[in-house]
Amino acid sequence: MPFSFAHVCDLLDQLQQQQQQQQSADGNVARRIIASWFAKHRHAINQTPATAAALFSTLLPDTRTDRVYGIQAPSLQRIVGRALCLGISRFAHLRRYENPGSGEDLADCVAGILTETPNAVSKLDQVMVEEIDALLNTLAANCRFSSHTVRQSYWNTGCENKETLGELYRQVDAREAKWLTRIILKQTHLTALDPNIVFGSYDARLPFIARVQESFEVALTSLRELRASNPLGIGTQNLVHVIKPILGTKVGRQTWLKGRSIKHCIGVHPKRISCEKKMDGEYCQVHVDLSKGSRSVQIFSKSGKDSTQDRAVASRRFLKDEGRILPFHKIRKYVLRSGVPLGTQKDSP
Fold first, then answer.
1. Domain DNA ligase ATP-dependent N-terminal, which positions (predicted)?
2. Number of domains in the chain
């Protein structure tokens, strides 16, 4: 059975209220709220395999770096304005977030519009998390800056997608429209929504699995297989012997903190740490699958996107001038972003 988006809004509202009460410094409060919410809805979340993946994509939109929607606040406000048939005065109300010091974002303005003139929404016609996730995936599939896997998953005209997004805004109430807007813009502004807390509230083993297999779908599949093969459960300390990296799925990277000196590094974290010098270049993760022949190499960027095609051009420029490796400031002009050279116009020849 699909999972209602209203339930997600309940959790987000609670976390926002807790954060506004300046209790965000106490992580245990947020942890209890999230754990209690998952305990309440666990049966519904576990009904279908797709529900959990769609739920995590909704709660943690900024972790979906493979999805780029090509929609910012100005373009989204136009979509909402057309969908709700706003006149000049009401459209001006929608743009109040642009005023310096207003203390509002676009989501607040959308909620204000729908509070004054609500949609004719029936309780029987609730918007589902899976429905929102599917729409966001189609939006991302039409953006060239999304990952190759997402772009191959679905395709139709961008105009059709935006019309569907507008229709969605006519099916939600003010509260749902507020959080839908923030999810699309990947700006929930909730510091308590830490992925480890969210994953751990679903299953104590999922945070470790997600670090090894940085994909909601793959990690959840591994978790289901683990549950099936070990019905009595397996401790998190033993997962290292069971969960292995998978070729083609990015391995999560460790947390990086910037340090100004060794003394500063020691003060940043009280436990054992490792330090390394920041080199000029780009972080990437390389997967080599010899069974794929000429397509055996797959390269993931720091953000987690499959950047194999973008790096293919640069790789041909690494060796030049009698086989010497060129410095990064020379080859960076050949490093593309979804086929587009960004920020290289003023580079030296």
1. 4-191
2. 2
